[in-house]
Amino acid sequence: MSGTALRLPVSSPLPQSATPGAHWNALRIGAVEWTIAHDCAGDLLDANGLRWDEWKPNDALEVIKTGPHRTVYRLQLASGDYYLKHFRMADWQAWLRNTVRTSPAERELQAVLRVAALRLPTFEPVALGVCRRYTVTGDTYLISRAIPDAIPLDHYLLTEFASGNSSERAELRHQLARELGRLAARLHAAGIEHVDLHAGNLLIRPDAAVGSPLLSLIDLHAVRFHASLSQSRRDCNLAALHQFFAGRSTRADRHRFWQAYEAELQSTTPAILTRSVSGGTRANRSSTPSLTLRVGISADRKGNCARLERLLDQAAHAGWRRADRAWRR
Question: Which DSSP state fits 12?
Answer without folding.
Answer: S
